[in-house]
Amino acid sequence: LSVALKCFYTSELFTPDFKFSVSGRYFAPPEGPHLEYLEYIRSLPLIAAPEAFGLHENATIMRDQKEAKQLLNSLLLSEGGAAASSAAGDAENDKLAALCDDILSRTPEVFDVEAAAARYPTSYP
To answer: Which of 97, 102, 104 is nearest to 79 (CA)?
Structure first.
């Protein structure tokens, strides 16, 4: 935590061209009226990019994987679990299976990397 904070709590923060991120989107706005601060805050994206926290862009992938896992775990929990009777449990399992089939039907086919490599060869110098 202290390493991350060193990037943000620095004397360079008070220079006009200091940016918290490589893109320049995140910076300390210059001193001014309250409304200018509000306008700057409103200009920021609703969902902050990893760069806002000093992270690499690949952190988005990890976040998306975590959200997908939470969604699927929530689906499993909402289906009643093992405490349901066998008849009710079968009906719940059928619903869950139907939901999984629906998700799989919308998922693209597995990409054949070998066929693509054979059809479109690439060479890197």
So the answer is: 97
The residue type of 60 is T
CA nearest neighbour of 28 among 12, 42, 48: 12
Expressed in angstroms, the distance from the first to the final Cα of the chain is: 41
Q: Which residues contact 63 (CB under 8 A, 6 or more apart)?
A: 50
Tens digits of per-residue pLDDT, 98-125? Answer: 888 888 888 888 888 888 888 888 877 6
DSSP type of residue 13: G
For the stretch 5-47, pLDDT in tens is 777 777 787 787 888 788 888 888 888 999 999 999 999 988 8
Residue 89 neighbours by CB under 8 Å, 6+ apart = 80, 82
How far apart are the C-alpha atoms of 70 and 58, rounded to whole Å? 19
CA-based radius of gyration for the chain: 24
CA gap 93, 87 in Å, rounded: 10
Q: Which amino acid is at 16?
A: P
What's the predicted TM-score (pTM) here? Answer: 0.46
